[in-house]
Amino acid sequence: MAATMHDLLTIMIERGASDLHVTTGTYPQIRQNGKLTPLTEFEQLTPQDSQRLAYSVLNEGQKQKFEEENELDLSFGIQGLARFRCNVYRQRGAVAAAIRVIPIKIRTFGDLNLPPIVEQMADMPLAKVTEPTPSSISVIFDSSAAVVGFCFCHVAPSVLSCATGSCVLSRVCASTPASSRIG
Hints:
single chain, Beta-Lactamase, alpha+beta
């Protein structure tokens, strides 16, 4: 069965995956718990399939910029589903895309099975979370989001959240947030 981007993103959300990878010569793949899982219910992607899927989330200006620069970073949303961060690039001469879900609901410390000390540290006037390595980025990012989310709702001083290319959508409770994208 030929894949549509909406089908792939819906499966990604339903299965709790963090990423979707669209690459020529493979099945579409999702990252679940740090491991890539091929979506074998769909056909392996041809160069035309990969381009069709990637271009389905781009507007005309974005398509033109990609054609000029061979790489494009963007975000987009699908109403009723989620928001996503996307990198479209060329790999072995074909269009490819890596898409990450932007969590709308920040998971709690309990959801992440973090030790109680993490919540205690987040309740202090200053909580510092370091930048992750690429192999652990999803786990560290979720942990960082949990700390920032807790601070938003439970710590009255302003919270400044800075991350290298990371995004969180959050409901603000007790704090005045300021966010900045670095890099």
